[in-house]
Design brief:
9 helices, homodimer, PRib_AMP_CycHydrolase_sf (chains A, B), alpha+beta, phosphoribosyl-AMP cyclohydrolase activity (chains A, B), 27% strand, Helix Hairpins, phosphoribosyl-ATP diphosphatase activity (chains A, B), Ubiquitin-like (UB roll), four-stranded mixed beta sheet
């Protein structure tokens, strides 16, 4: 296997070059040229020479090699690799990486794993085209667990679900699993977003259902807009009026919630908003844009 | 091992009872009574009888047993268990669970793992008191990977870091690791929050440093407040003026960023804001509070 290329993070855009050369045991690699799409990142290109054997030893530039050497590979040469959505924080999937899988992920910026059942490398998306575009790679304190922090091109699970985690143990124990309603593992912001979406659906499917504040807001744009304006004012007041921290957290929660109802009406997800923020910040964008606008 | 108790999610508060009885092989368990703090959840209590042996077979209520049976334990009886912060989405740590560790996590709602080095169960926090209070448990599509979605009482890593993931491979490759500055694996919202904090620090440590829009806002409350108000108005305008989705995402990004600068001045974290939202929503709180306020 031979990998050569360069990569950079825009927030600290010094390019890093490296090369992975094929070992003598596999003198006739099949050469493939790859070019990678990396939204939010400087273009990355790499030339990968795949050896015919899957266990090709690799020779790497020293820093790159040191990183791979420092991972505490288990007795089978593997470490846990977790793919996480950089914008939402959703855990997309978990697999295992061997040395080559980690090397390929770092160089290609596509989340790559070692398939224990097929005894081979596989890049998530090579069949579905739903690649996970890796923006950062983290090792844990024990150096035996890896996070691929990236942006998925589409649903990660082979079932078509956004992530592979949609079976709640407590739902099963409480019997609500019988409704056949799958529920993705969501953190607070995205649970709230899902609740707002559910209220919107209920307006259509259960017009005489339980009333709720969210439904009222969804049905009354004037009320919603006045609430967003009012909550922004109340948040500001906590600063100007030197109110306590709890009050600030509470008013920010109100502003966030009401703004998210507005996003729902516009069919905009929090993930899209965060993507805007990420792209701006990786280009020092928010600061620059506003600086430009105001000065 | 004998575990009995009940648990419920407030959003669907039907209690679920179960019992785990000790097998005949271990007739003299040591009884411990535990009571658990579960912020955002109905109180959970469980009586756990620990057998003197660590490999006690367990007899469980049928649903509970079915869940444990359905996990695809590996040849060593283990599955990957990932602890994730329910509010921020941060991956706190990754360990392994065996059948007993998963059973104990589900019943006690404290993230519990199987230590491969010590060949015993360990509940994160049993020494440091920094428990991870589990709100939900998810299995992946292959049923060999588990998420403990919970709220940590304090830093998770034994080093005192918030999470165990603070070593970026790209930082090492780019040489910025030489600064000895550790960087936690953060998703977009929390990277932005960290950037704003950094600007605040720079105002004090580098008063003649590079100017930035964030610093300007941090130093001028009047400007900041007018910006928060203005961005709220522009977000509203995208709805009233039927502007396109991209415009909405962009204005929401602006509102979020400026509000977060205000949060920084009040020393309030996004995690605190999200905790407020979670607690309200798990009590149908936002809807009820606002409904009360307005009707």
């Amino acid at each position: 296997m031979e990998v050569s290329g360069s990569f950079s993070r825009l927030s600290s855009p010094r390019p890093v070059s490296f090369s992975v050369t094929n070992c003598a045991k596999h003198p006739n690699p099949t050469k493939t040229n790859l070019s990678f799409r990396n939204s939010g990142y400087a273009p990355v290109s790499a030339s990968v020479e795949r050896s015919s054997g899957s266990n090709a030893a690799v020779h790497l530039d020293s820093k790159f090699e040191t990183i791979l050497d420092n991972v505490k590979w288990d007795s089978k040469g593997l470490a846990v690799a977790i793919a996480q959505n950089i914008d939402t924080g959703s855990i997309l999937m978990q697999g295992f990486a061997n040395r080559d899988a980690l090397a390929k992920t770092i160089s290609s910026r596509k989340a790559t794993f070692y398939s224990r059942s097929r005894s081979s490398l596989w890049t998530k998306g090579e069949t579905s085209m739903n690649f996970i575009n890796v923006h950062d790679v983290f090792l844990d304190c024990d150096r035996d667990s890896i996070i691929y922090l990236g942006k998925p091109d589409g649903p990660t699970c082979h079932t078509g679900a956004e992530t592979c985690y949609y079976t709640s143990v407590y739902d099963i124990l409480e019997g609500s699993k019988e409704d056949k309603e799958e529920r993705l593992a969501k953190t607070t912001l995205y649970s709230l977003e899902a609740t707002i979406s559910k209220r919107k659906e209920e307006i259509e499917t259960l017009p005489n259902g339980k009333p709720s504040w969210t439904k009222k807001l969804l049905l009354n744009q004037e009320l919603l807009c006045s609430k967003v304006r009012e909550e922004a004012g109340e948040l500001i007041q906590t600063l100007l009026g030197n109110e306590d921290k709890d009050r600030t957290a509470s008013e920010m929660a109100d502003l966030l919630y009401h703004s998210m109802v507005l996003l729902n009406l516009k069919d905009v997800s929090m993930e899209e908003v965060l993507e805007v923020l990420r792209k701006r910040f990786s280009q020092s964008g928010v600061e620059e844009k506003n600086s430009r606008k105001k000065n």
